[in-house]
Design brief:
Blueprint (H helix, E strand, L loop, with lengths): L2 H24 L6 H9 L5 E5 L5 H8 L5 E6 L2 H11 L5 E5 L16 E7 L8 H14 E12 L5 H4 L2 E2 L15 E8 L7 E8 L3 H11 L1 E9 L7 E8 L2
Parallel strand pairs: 1-2, 1-4, 2-3, 4-5
Antiparallel strand pairs: 5-10, 6-7, 7-8, 9-10
Length: 247
Amino acid sequence: MKSETVDTLLSLNQRFYEQFAGAFAQTRRRIQDGVRRALGMLPDEGAWVDVGCGSGALAQAWIRAGRASRYLGLDFSAELLAEARKQVGANERVKFRVANMGDEHWADGLEKGAFRGALAFAALHHVPSAALRLRVLRQVRDLLGPDGWFVHSEWQFQHSPKLMARRLDWERVGLSETDLEPGDTLLDWRFALPGQAEQVGLRYVHLFSREELAELAAQSGFAISETYESDGDGGRLGLYQVWRAAG
C-alpha cells in the first residue's frame, strides 16, 4: 500500500474519533463479553498496556475487578482519553497517555521488556497496510518480557448482515479498490441522541482472516495459544486471540 493511501486512511479514522468521540463513548460504556472473558484469564501481576483503550471501559472493569496489576491505556484520541480519565477518576494503578499507532514513535518512552502483557481490543483493524500492522506488532512484542501476553480482538463484521449493508465505495473518500489491500473496508457509523438528527461518520476497518493473523504472529515473534469468538448477535462479531511472546 502506498504511503499516501496509509495517510489517507489514518486521517479518516482520526477525523472520525475527533468528530464523534462523545457520541462514540456513549456506545462503549461496558466491555464486551469477549473482553470480560479475557480479563478473567490474565495473570494479576506486573504492568499491562492497553493499545487503543478508547474511553476507558476496560480500565473501569480493571478497577472493579480489584486487580493489583498496573494498567496503562494508550489512544490517539485526546477526546476519548479525557472521557476515560473522567470515568476512572484518580487511581494510582491506572494511567493514560496519548499514543498513535500510525506514528513510528508511538512506543517511545515505554520501557522495552517492562510489561507483563499487552491488550488491543478492536484496535488493530483500524491500522492500514500489512506493513504497518507488522511494525506495530513488533513494537508491541518489544514492550513485553519473556513469555509476555498479547490479547487482542478483531471485528468480524462479515457475520452481520446489518454491518455488511453499511459498506461503502472507496470513491466516497477519493480512493479506488486498487489502492487497498484484501479485507480493507469502508464502513459508515450511525448514532442518534434522543431528539437529535442521526449522525453519520466514516471509518476504515480491515477484515482479518485467521490465516493472516497466524502469519502476523509468526513474523512478529509470537505464538498463538488460544482463539475464540464472542460478542454481538450470535456471539461471532469479535475474533479474540491470546498470543504469547516466543523466542
